[in-house]
Structure formats: C-alpha cells, structure tokens
Amino acid sequence: MKRRTVLGAAGALLLSACDRLAGTRWFSGMLESGETLSRTAHKVVLTRRSMAQEFREEDLSPVFRSNGTSDPGTPAYRALAARGFETWRLNVAGLVERPLSFSLADLRAMPAREQITRHDCVEGWSAIGKWRGTPLSEVLMRAQPHPAARYVVFHCADPMEGDRQFYYESIDLDDAFHPQTILAYDLNDKPLPVANGAPVRLRVERQLGYKHAKYLMRIELVEDFAGVRGGKGGYWEDSNGYQWYAGI
Ligand SMILES: Nc1nc2c(c(=O)[nH]1)N[C@H]1C(S)=C(S)[C@@H](COP(=O)(O)O)O[C@H]1N2
Ligand SMILES: [Mo]
Predict the structure, then answer these.
(1) Looking at residue 169, which CATH number applies to its domain?
(2) Which ligand sits nearest to residue 239's alpha carbon?
(3) Whose CA is nearest to atom 16 of ligand 1?
(4) Do residues 48 and 177 make contact, with C-beta atoms less than 8 angstroms apart?
(5) For the chain, N or C: smaller number of CB within 10 Å?
(6) 234 CA to middle of ligand 2, Å?
C-alpha cells in the first residue's frame, strides 16, 4: 500500500505535467508496471523541468560552424540531397507499438518548437543558434514506445572510418521527452544546411555537441545497448571512451 501511495503521487505529478503522454497506451502500460514507473517517475519528476538556457536573437553567433562530418558524401545521401530531401524518410522502429516513417513534410506539419541555445563542443568551441524542429516527444507519442523501451538510438547517414560504420548516438527517455529535445530542420530561420546535418538533426540541449546526431535516418527504441555496436550507446563512446551522459 505504501508503495502504491508513492507511485500514486508520482503518477499524479506526471499526469498534470504531461496529460497527452498519459493518453498513450505506452503510458497506461507503464502505470501497470510498478518497476518501470518508479524508475521512470524518479527521473522524470526530478529532472524533467530543468531547462537549458535560452538566448535572444541578439546573441546569435554570426556563423554556426560545422564540426565532425560536414557532408556524408555517399551516393545514397547525394541522391537525397539532389532532390531536396523529398524522398528522405525518418524511420522509427525497435520497441514501439507502431513503427512509423516520417517525410520532411510530415515533420514540418507537426507541432514545432523554436529555441535559441548554445552548442558546446568538447573540442573547445561554442556557438549560439536558433533551431526549429519537431519535439521528439511528438514523434515518440505517435510510435508509442513499448514499456520495455529505455533508450532512443539515432542512426545517421554519414560513414565513419571507411564505409561500413555510420555515426550513431543515444539518449534516455528522460531526455527524449524533454521539451527542448527536438528534431531540428531549420537553423537560423533557414532549412538546415548540409554542413549542420540536413535534412534533420537532433538537438538535446542539456548535453554536449557530440550527442546532437546529424543526418538522421532511423530512430530505434531499445532496452539496452547490447545490440548497438560496442555496447556503450554512441560512436564516440564506443571508439574513444567519451561519456555516454554528456551533461553540461
Ligand atoms: N552524424 C553526425 N552527427 C554529429 C557529428 C558527426 O560527425 N556526425 N559530430 C558531432 C559533434 S562532435 C558536434 S560538436 C556537432 C557539430 O554540429 P555542427 O556541425 O552543426 O556544428 O555534431 C555532432 N553530431
Ligand atoms: Mo563536438
């Protein structure tokens, strides 16, 4: 009974904070599973509201530089870019009730968020940019994560070290449902340039630059990273020992 009271209180907070989420089958499933809710509730209730700083138009950097891949350069990517990404699709799969596929037009037609934030790269530079995109929560609510889903993995179009391995990154559901976590398609009021991740890149504002996956192709919900390359959840985590949680 004691446990139920605690869960009930956490549940009430969650319900008031995000009633749209509450309407999904995924959330109802979570309510039935005490384990999942208590873990998720702690994380969500405690950290959901901490927001990354937002800036004003006057603060924008004159140039938002590119880092890492500045053009994936593969025949497949070139073909997409040549047609203005009209044939590009973002696939959402893995532990979801409804695997989905979104075109750029689909994403642009969904609710959008705009935010002016500072990007911090571990290599020692920062830049302030204005991003517009679809909240990742909007995409996930439509796909309905399975109760077992714990992480969101982003698979990108740019090959790293040769042509077999592509850039990938991941975040947990706390960051995935955070209001500032968006799938950005505009930078500074213009379509996202190729150098910055066209057609769509992740913005996950409470973390460092390398978590902000560019050139998104596929989003996969997983329970753990056992099936994701080296098992540490990201390209730099697996290949260079970077921290998986890159909090700023
Ligand atoms: N797909 C992909 N995403 C990526 C990278 C990359 O090389 N490939 N580099 C990361 C790093 S280290 C940084 S700092 C930012 C750079 O974003 P920008 O090119 O818009 O400045 O993208 C991140 N996301
Ligand atoms: Mo970076």
Answers:
(1) 3.90.420.10
(2) 1
(3) 67
(4) yes
(5) N
(6) 13
**CB of 235 closer than 6 angstroms to any ligand 1 atom:** no
C-alpha span between 181 and 139 (Å, rounded): 11
Rg over alpha carbons for the chain, rounded to the nearest Å, is: 18
pLDDT digits 0-9 by tens, 63-94: 999 999 999 999 999 999 999 999 999 999 99
156 lines ligand 1 (CB under 6 A): yes
- Give the predicted TM-score (pTM) of the model: 0.84
Residue closest by Cα to atom 20 of ligand 1: 196
Type and span of the H or E element at 224: none
What one-letter code names the amino acid at 95?
L
- Shared domain check, 32 and 62: no
From the alpha carbon of 127, which atom of ligand 1 is closest?
21
Cβ of 73 below 6 Å from ligand 1:
no
Q: Note whether 219 and 195 are same-domain residues.
A: yes
pLDDT bracket for residue 164 (50, 70, 90): confident
Amino acid occupying residue 175:
D
Whether 221 contacts 155, CB under 8 Å: no
Over residues 147-168, mean pLDDT: 94
Q: Do residue 200 and residue 105 come from a single domain?
A: yes
Q: Are residues 24 and 75 in the same domain?
A: no
Q: What is the CA 190 to chain-centroid distance, rounded?
A: 20
Q: Which residue has the higher pLDDT, 80 or 161?
A: 80
Any atom of ligand 1 within 6 Å of the Cβ of 179? no
